[in-house]
Amino acid sequence: MNPLELLKFYTEAGIDEALEETPQNRLLAVPTPPQTAPKPALNQPEPSAMPPRPKTTASLPSAVIQARELADNAKTLAELEQTVREFNGCPLKKTANKTVFCRGNPESKLMLIGEAPGANEDVEGIPFCGQSGQLLDNMLRSIGYDNSNAYITNTTFWRPPGNRKPTPEELEVCKPFVEKHIALLNPKLLVLVGGVAIADMLNTTESVGKLRLKFHDYQNQYLKKPIKVLCTFHPSYLLRSPGQKAFAWKDWLMVKRFILAD
Ligand code: URA
Fold it and tell me: Assuming Cys at both sites, which of 36, 131, 174, 197 could form a disulfide with 192, CB separation 3.0 to 4.6 Å?
């Protein structure tokens, strides 16, 4: 096959990251252990029947515990941001170029949470700075909001390779930071942008269509009282289904009315 065609095929299939310097032939036979293994010396532990686990940065549950402890200790947004940047417990960090923490005004009453950084965000280190970010900005601008009075982040701080959805484990390890992020900002309204953020933050399997145009309460261990939540479509969905934009317009009008009301 023409190598360029092969590369194009890989890119379209979402394989767009080099994980190792040298290619690995995964088709090579796995060497079989010798039939007559030497007997362990007395008082030595039996060799495990399982092959040794590959060394990873951290096993996920302990990474979640570590993330929780770190989130507990972050007292300001700046501390939280530095903590997230230094954290190595999320496997996504291994393949990402940049940590994508936030953009906008930390004094804002309006906080938006999207899914995960995409390719542009991974290059720039800024959430929603690609094509779907442009649409999000247009929708925000139409109700009088931009970086000066809105604040934007994601449920994960590193790009999932090939723009796949973050796995439940990846969301879980980022969750303590996201929870503390919300508490430190303490916005009047949280807008969950797209199905992944909605499912993760509201712990629901209901569709965006069912949950939008209603106020929900969001609570976590760091908050003194619940925060009001609205749900809306992800802009990348709206780019694929422009017919839905009129519905999204209704969502953003509801956001504006709530923020402006006292
Ligand atoms: N999509 C998201 O959900 N977040 C981003 O930051 C970019 C694209």
Answer: 197
